């Protein structure tokens, strides 16, 4: 079985990487070249997301980066050797030299787990790691993996019976390594053992009530929630998943000497574990939607930016391209990609939660969420509505799809029942429940801006700029924009001047943030690439370039965008900047539509800098918090 996931071309005995992230990139490239990974950036992002849950570096120079990812085409294991060693954050503080990168398909077949079990038994085999590091060729290394060791002398299993429980947050590598270590240690000590694995393929090998009753001790080595109440009254030790890998015999000895487990005194750590697991799952769902949305944002944004920058002309109605020209066709294609990006975000969030049955209702829910005409609003809910739609659809469809149905109906559930009920559910939710408050919100915001239009310009700049930077095409942004456009007709062009300075701040700020944050390792590769496109979009006033960042990390990005946009708008009002066309960004200033182009550019640059610095600071704080929590 192991040969189906590992081959000589997936073994590199001399990695060039000198950092942990570089190891991920180099090994992911090996998988991509062999056609095992379709979207390298997404796979690396999923690897890094798993790493945030807990470091995958072991003692003895071994590291097991792994992830279940929608980017994996077929399961595979890439193996790399760093001769000089990499600072990986292993528990023993030593550099890591031997890397096994496990690529598991999200929602696909699970036969890769069998290979992992084989690999686990090799890694805890005496002398294997040293022999593998000494291999001269990939063929030699593969031969070591396939080598069958002579069976160890059997030890009579007459000392008693043990139960083990293993599980790690991702349920891929550590779960099965720990199980193998417990089985090997128990056999060497003369104990029979049954190990329950709480892995990515579900809970397997669960002990019966009779087995629990006759067990001499219980070893729970888990970094995730498990049912502890069933072990009440038994000798029990609870450890992290890495403990038996490091010292299986020691863990068993501690369990045999432990006091009987009192379930009533169990601290509420399991609740924290459940919350942590829910957060990690939510992050994974959002990442799946964002990763599929990014190509649409980049493609559509760059095509629109290119057409406006080259073929656009400032008019009273905004930046316009001559009808029938080549650049109008380019613009039309870009607009199609932009229309699709919000449904794609919602669809693939739902897909991550409910698999294929959630895809169609997710797409439809995202489209309805972004089209205000369905519920009488001037604009849709933007990316925030798409996230809500994707999550609602995903959980609803998963609930429908996992009910027990008659065997005649079951085949229809994933292709008919779940998609149709999911579509009706999300359509009804937005049209009849969510839509009316959104429409009312937009009317209320427009009235608020109208009442403030004769008031303090600083306060107005704060409100107008904050709305511009909050949701990038959503109801807040759209109300502020439409209000400013309407004021042009009344001869009050200062409102559009403030909006024109605030509109590009979010994409330009996030583009700058990716440059500043590159050395701090706070942005993933996909975000860094998206940052380049966001910069180009910001130059021509397309605020949607910042959506991927906001959708992926809203708590860091949205406050940064709002603050930067507020600064730009307040400065624009203070300098008396006006704009006579319904568009924003540096391109409008450079084409002469703004009365003070240099000051306008200064406002945009200042807002951009504020957004970048705040985003970097907040993301760094979040990273430190995660590292502290997993230390």
From TrEMBL:
Gene3D superfamilies: 3.40.50.2300, Mannitol-specific EII, Chain A (3.40.930.10). Keywords: Cell membrane, Kinase, Membrane, Phosphoprotein, Phosphotransferase system, Sugar transport, Transferase, Transmembrane, Transmembrane helix, Transport. SUPFAM superfamilies: Phoshotransferase/anion transport protein (SSF55804), PTS system IIB component-like (SSF52794). Pfam families: PTS_EIIA_2 (PF00359), PTS_EIIC (PF02378), PTS_IIB (PF02302). Its EC number is 2.7.1.202. GO terms for molecular function: carbohydrate:proton symporter activity; kinase activity; protein-N(PI)-phosphohistidine-fructose phosphotransferase system transporter activity; protein-phosphocysteine-sugar phosphotransferase activity. Coiled coil: none annotated. The keyword Glycoprotein does not apply. It is found in: Cell inner membrane; Cytoplasm. It comes from the Bacteria. This is protein-N(pi)-phosphohistidine--D-fructose phosphotransferase. It comes from Photobacterium profundum (strain SS9). The gene is VVA0188.
